[in-house]
Amino acid sequence: MRVAVFATKPYDRRFLVEANRRTGHHLTFLEARLDATTASLAAGHQAVCAFVNDRLDAAVLGRLAELGIRLVAMRCAGYNNVDLQAAGTLGVTVVRVPAYSPHAVAEFTIGLLLALDRNIHRAWARVRENNFALDGLIGRNLHGRTMGVVGTGRIGALVARSLRLGFGCHVLASDVHRDPELEAAGVRYTDPATLLAESDVVTLHCPLTPETHHLIDARAIAAARPGLMIVNTSRGALIDTPALIEGLKSRRIGGVALDVYEQEADLFFEDLSNEIVQDDDFQRLLTFPNVLVTGHQAFLTEEALTSIAETTLSSIADAEAGRPLPHAVHRQQVTRTA
Ligand code: NAD
Questions:
Q1: Out of 235, 262, 310, 327, which one is annotated catalytic?
Q2: For 102-293, which CATH class?
Q3: Taking the domains of the chain in order of start, what are their residue ranges?
């Protein structure tokens, strides 16, 4: 199939080209992000492959449908940036990669937590300046502390298990579905309010839905245990950034590690080192010593990129051959994981 692959970086191309040896699609790699101004670049193709910060709203999907695109292959798990209602109406099928490597994201989450908690990011900067002083770098043991895991699906379950069985933490969890294996491992499910009130650290692994939008807002921060640390490797809009900044300023929040950010579409995946960043909230976040930000890289392992490329291209091959599409996203899933 002829596929227009939007928002590609050299690493995307490397893994897609390798996986395409088996599927033989005609891939056109585009650097441009997909939005209303770039949708026309899909002309002459039958499918579009897109990523987390591409915009697939009704207008863009309408333009793609006009160009004859009948398949959108998201090379990611989340699809909160796709208007599934519009896709259904236009007859555009959407597939995704539901589980490429939950280990990649879970391990990165633990890495962020350890770096933030033990001030590894600050130590690294100091040592580069030959500053070996330890003042201000005191951390806390993870062992024996209470960790709150919001969302115990593929990624959250790995994080909960690792914190419970690997580090000996008390682990609280909240989810709309309980995982009996986690309960057997000693993870205790509770309601979100109790989780916030009792946890030393909260790590977010639920999808972005209308219900979870700004899950961490001023009210949640006021009700949280003082000094709460937050890790977010899920989706930026789970957190209300101005409320988070106020929580950090008042020291109600003790530290934050973010791999995702609500307005990341204007920033992440690009080299902006010669630009003047206009996002004042983001810049303010970077000024706190107890804030650690990475640019949506939790998925970035060899294993995950291989799996993403293989699953995406085989879904496209299945669509071309008229086979069933196990990774199609259906409209009825909208309420749960859009
Ligand atoms: P998953 O679907 O396996 O698990 C999500 C869990 O959240 C499910 O158990 C679901 O029941 C639960 N949930 C839904 N609504 C909830 C709510 N209101 N409160 C608590 N729990 C709720 O998804 P996953 O594969 O574990 O991915 C989790 C998140 O991580 C997704 O949002 C995805 O977009 C994000 N992600 C980020 C990266 C990255 O590079 N940073 C990579 C992959 C996935």
A1: 235
A2: alpha beta
A3: 2-100+301-321, 102-293
pLDDT digits (tens, 9 = 90+) for 130-148: 999 999 999 999 999 999 9
Q: Give ligand 1 pocket residues (Cβ under 6 A).
A: 77-78, 99, 102, 105, 150-156, 174-177, 205-208, 211-212, 233-235, 259-260, 296, 298-299
The reply to whether 235 belongs to the active site is: yes
Q: pLDDT by residue (tens digit) across 51-98? A: 999 999 999 999 999 999 999 999 998 899 999 999 999 999 999 999
Cα→Cα distances 126→134, 156, 224, 254, Å: 9, 33, 32, 21
CATH architecture of the domain with range 2-100+301-321: 3-Layer(aba) Sandwich (3.40)
Q: Is the pTM of this model over 0.90?
A: yes
Q: Which two tokens stand for residue 295?
A: 């640019």
Q: What is the mean pLDDT of the chain?
A: 95
Is 154 tagged catalytic? no
CA geometry: angle 119, 125, 129, nearest 5 deg: 135
Question: Which one from 161, 264, 310, 327 is the annotated catalytic residue?
Answer: 264
- Interval 104-115 mean pLDDT: 98
Catalytic-residue membership of 188? no
Question: How many other C-beta atoms can be found within 10 angstroms of the C-beta atom of residue 37?
Answer: 11
Instruction: Assign 211 to helix, strand or coil.
Output: coil
Annotated catalytic residue, options 33, 63, 145, 296: 296
Nearest to 294 by CA among 275, 255, 268: 268
Question: Ligand 1 centre from 25 Cα, in Å?
Answer: 30
